[in-house]
Specification:
Blueprint (H helix, E strand, L loop, with lengths): L9 H23 L1 H28 L45 E3 L9 E4 L15 E2 L7
Antiparallel strand pairs: 1-2, 2-3
Length: 146
Amino acid sequence: MKSKNRGFTLIELLVVLVILGLLAGLVLPRMMGRTEDARRQTAEIQIRALENALNLYFADNGFYPTTAQGLSALSEKPSSEPLPKKWKGPYMEKGIIPKDPWDNEYIYLSPGVHQKEFDLLSYGKDGVQGGEGESADIENWNIGRH
């Protein structure tokens, strides 16, 4: 015996499409705003990891890398003064210095302007100093003070 139903009717397909459209209209706007939040949280986590690595460097050598030596001193022994005599790196996992979630280098200043030892920051989404909201800078001296 053959079944008389060979597929979905046009009305059934339209009902399914309307339901999917309603679900997408409710769910997607909530999900879309989270991407930038996740990037900002990732930057904060990476800054904390870099701070920990810099503190290990300090514990081994008695000083932080200079601004000129930069964060690369955490993955390769610096060849410029001051030379770290007890360098035990790499201080970052696999010797990789991460870029911020927007694919920019982190800004490192030592000694710092805002903190005595060093300043570490990302310029955020726009890659330019300053900004507000999603474009606000993420700074090690302001993390956790929001």
